Amino acid sequence: MNGEDVARSVRVILKKFRRFLEPSSLDVLEEVEACALDSYATFRARMRGRREPPSGLEWGYSIHPDKPLAFKPTVVGQCKLQPDLYCTVKWTSVDSCPSRQNVGLRVWSLEPRVTYREHLDSEGVRKALAERPAGPNRRVMLRYHFDLAATNQQGPHYHLQAGGKPRKDELCWLHEGISVPRIPFPPLDLVLAVELVAANFLDEHDRDVLRDPHWFGMIRHNQDYFLTPYYSNCLTLLRNSGQSLLGGLWNVKWS
């Protein structure tokens, strides 16, 4: 994976998913493309003549939660929802998987009957919803992180985690102090995350985009890079009778 690979994948997202994205997301994708190309060029220049990168040198891209990759609202189960994505994906080489991966998926409710529950929510929540810049009927109902574990962090090396530390404007239902369970989940990048959102939130007709040959070719490329090594490792662990699959995927070796 290199900077041009990332830039090419962003251009495919722009071309195939433009009609499903909020206008602000088009600028977000252009910034991702520029960041990947610029940081990779800097990385290559500083790596010239080196075998190992100097401390702190990495390349990649980020999408900030204040300016996420936001999809247009959609109706799921008679509830108006809006998903968005933010992420940090960084590399310290071109031959290995990312050194940092944190992909966040938020699901906002745009339904007054869901965002504020009179029999459960406080008056403080009602006032906060009414006064917030994001709109009175907008609240994060679900948040998922697809993460690469930090050094010595308990949990699977690649994992899915619900919740996490909420941002003030989210008024999220999920408690920030509960960080477990961390559930095994394969690695993913922006392309695979967009596929995940599209499969879950687009209607049956719009999901035709997932079968578009150009898009599917990009999916195959990123699957080969991210998923083939992961599932090959899973298969090796399953064949190892002396260790459970979960134990083998755990970031810190079980004693």
What descriptors fit this protein?
255 residues; eight-stranded antiparallel beta sheet
Could you walk me through the main structural features you see in this protein, from its secondary elements to its overall organization?
The protein is an alpha+beta fold. It has one domain. It is 38% helix and 20% strand. It has helices at 3-17, 23-47, 112-115, 123-131, 190-201, 213-239, 245-249, and strands spanning 59-63, 69-70, 74-76, 79-91, 100-109, 139-148, 158-162, 182-184. Helix 1 runs antiparallel to helix 2. The mean pLDDT is 89.
SSE map:
Layout: H1 3-17, H2 23-47, E1 59-63, E2 69-70, E3 74-76, E4 79-91, E5 100-109, H3 112-115, H4 123-131, E6 139-148, E7 158-162, E8 182-184, H5 190-201, H6 213-239, H7 245-249
Antiparallel strand pairs: 1-4, 2-4, 3-4, 4-5, 5-6, 6-7, 7-8
